[in-house]
From TrEMBL:
This protein is a component of the acetyl coenzyme A carboxylase complex; first, biotin carboxylase catalyzes the carboxylation of the carrier protein and then the transcarboxylase transfers the carboxyl group to form malonyl-CoA. InterPro entries: ACC_Biotin_Carboxylase, Acetyl_CoA_COase_biotin_COase, ATP-grasp, ATP_grasp_subdomain_1, BC-like_N, Biotin_carboxylation_dom, Biotin_COase_C, CPAse_ATP-bd. Its EC number is 6.3.4.14. One of its GO terms (biological process) is fatty acid biosynthetic process. Acetyl-CoA carboxylase is a heterohexamer of biotin carboxyl carrier protein, biotin carboxylase and the two subunits of carboxyl transferase in a 2:2 complex. This is Biotin carboxylase. Residues 120-316 form the ATP-grasp domain. It comes from the Bacteria. It catalyses: N(6)-biotinyl-L-lysyl-[protein] + hydrogencarbonate + ATP = N(6)-carboxybiotinyl-L-lysyl-[protein] + ADP + phosphate + H(+). The keyword Metal-binding applies. The keyword Magnesium applies. Keywords: ATP-binding, Biotin, Fatty acid biosynthesis, Fatty acid metabolism, Ligase, Lipid biosynthesis, Lipid metabolism, Magnesium, Metal-binding, Nucleotide-binding. Pathway: Lipid metabolism; malonyl-CoA biosynthesis; malonyl-CoA from acetyl-CoA: step 1/1.
Length: 449
């Protein structure tokens, strides 16, 4: 039984988790930095504890302060949300050592998947197809050259500890490999304190397709179909869809079966996402995220499931209570991430939201923690809202998103809403005919014109 959950996060995801808890009759504890004293997640929680100064390192990443807050308030479980401590195996371990439930996978699985090289070796052994590349870490530049010759240029040098698109460099030809090798390693060392790198063939026109998985502590594993997250800028997702306009039912079924079988053999528990690049009908695993993802609402809309509620039930030791054949995808869902950024330069635009009006109506969902008068602090991620729509067909979902974006008012700061409008109106997007490289080119063309 879980009766009080401490949410070790902020912003829209803290609210999202509170909502599930409230509907389940579970009390919530918010934690916050001094910069977030007026935040909505603090106002709406049953209890709130200040855990430190604005810098995330001293507050939302401060394990001792978060655990103390859980002890003082008598919480019996911690939900990490996404980002911050959500993929920190030591944190998960410490939470459990203190007798609390960690609402997520085991520390061992977080650790295995947190190292992308180990993740790939593990998945290969479980029969999941990979992007062609090096078998493990590259020992030196000579090894990088040899693998690159074998798989063929262009290639990508990637950090084993990578995340957020950092520590990743393309070498178009043999002339670039030395630079890609040293830049990727330097970036990896600076960002993750670990300069281990590996090499993958750089796919020229893949889609990013990911599978949402849930497993319980009793060996049951199911998937909730795919999300297409190909619309990215600097390897960061901007707009996501469920399902993918590119997949057939047979392809979905096959990758779903491969993924759930692999995770069942691992004994995977709680929510996880297997990320693939998909090109010419082939799926290639790139990484696994051992947490709830930003874009989870599109899956919730098409599958009529509350993924956070399921995460909490699983952490409490309950059985899933359903099997794969009970899960049906219906209609189409789209999510637009609304970042407080200049829509052309993407420079962050913190400041005060003077006017805020959230769109509504049939099939419209706004996950946000902002309000009129809210001051967006400069210390954290620039995403201030997620607008999600659901409709019977993709075409109707696009029209609904366009209508919802027209209703949305965020005054006082710049947002990427104008860019979303342009994307939704574009014939190539409307046809669903895009790859992971499409948005960068689209943005470049917009800025030129
Ligand atoms: P991170 O953990 O930093 O997000 P990922 O491995 O998930 O890194 O990759 C992020 C994005 O980078 C992918 O969604 C894709 O757009 C691009 N990418 C990664 N690997 C490749 C590859 N081998 N070829 C082409 N693009 C890639």
């Amino acid at each position: 039984m879980i009766s009080k959950v401490l949410i070790a996060n902020r912003g829209e995801i803290a609210l999202r988790i509170q909502r599930a808890c409230r509907e389940m009759g579970i009390k919530t504890v918010a934690v916050h930095s001094t910069a977030d004293a007026d935040a909505m997640h603090v106002r709406l929680a049953d209890e709130a504890v200040c855990i430190g100064p604005p810098s995330a390192r001293d507050s939302y990443l401060n394990v001792a302060a978060i655990l103390s807050a859980a002890m003082i308030t008598g919480a019996d479980a911690i939900h990490p949300g996404y980002g911050f401590l959500s993929e920190n195996a030591e944190f998960a371990e410490t939470v459990e050592e203190h007798g609390l439930a960690f609402i997520g996978p085991t520390a061992e699985h977080i650790r295995t998947m947190g190292d992308k090289i180990t993740a790939k070796t593990t998945m290969r052994a479980l029969g999941v197809p990979l992007v062609p590349g090096s078998d493990g870490a590259l020992v030196d530049i000579q090894a990088a050259r040899e693998v690159a010759e074998k798989v063929g240029y262009p290639v990508l040098i990637k950090a084993a500890a990578g995340g957020g698109g950092r520590g990743m460099k393309v070498a178009q030809t043999a002339d670039d490999i030395e630079e890609a090798w040293s830049v990727a390693r330097a970036e990896a060392r600076a960002a993750f304190g670990n300069d281990e790198v590996y090499l993958e063939k750089y796919l020229d026109r893949p889609r990013h397709i990911e599978l949402q998985i849930l497993g319980d502590a009793h060996g049951n594993v199911v998937h909730f179909g795919e999300r297409d997250c190909s619309l990215q800028r600097r390897h960061q997702k901007l707009l996501e869809e469920a399902g993918s306009p590119a997949l057939t039912d047979a392809e979905r079924e096959e990758i779903g079966r491969t993924s759930t079988e692999a995770l069942a053999r691992m004994g995977y528990r709680n929510a996880g996402t297997l990320e693939f690049l998909y090109q010419d009908g082939q799926f290639c695993f790139i990484e696994m995220n051992t947490r709830l993802q930003v874009e989870h609402p599109v899956t919730e809309m098409v599958c009529s499931v509350d993924l956070v509620r399921e995460q909490i039930r699983i952490a409490a030791g309950e059985q899933l209570g359903y099997t794969q054949k009970d899960i049906k995808m219906s209609g189409h869902a789209i999510e637009c991430r609304i970042n407080a950024e200049n829509p052309e330069t993407f420079a962050p635009s913190p400041g005060t939201v003077n006017v805020f009006h959230a769109p509504g109506g049939l099939g419209v969902r706004m996950d946000s923690a902002i309000y009129a008068g809210y001051r967006i602090p400069p210390y954290y991620d620039s995403m201030i809202a997620k607008l999600i729509v659901h409709a019977p067909t993709r075409q109707e979902a696009i029209a609904r998103m366009q209508r919802a974006l027209d209703e949305c008012v965020v005054d006082g700061v710049e947002t990427v809403i104008p860019l979303h409008r342009k994307i939704l109106a574009d014939p190539t997007f409307q046809k669903g005919d895009y790859t992971i490289h499409w948005l960068e080119n689209f943005v470049a063309a917009q800025t030129k014109s």
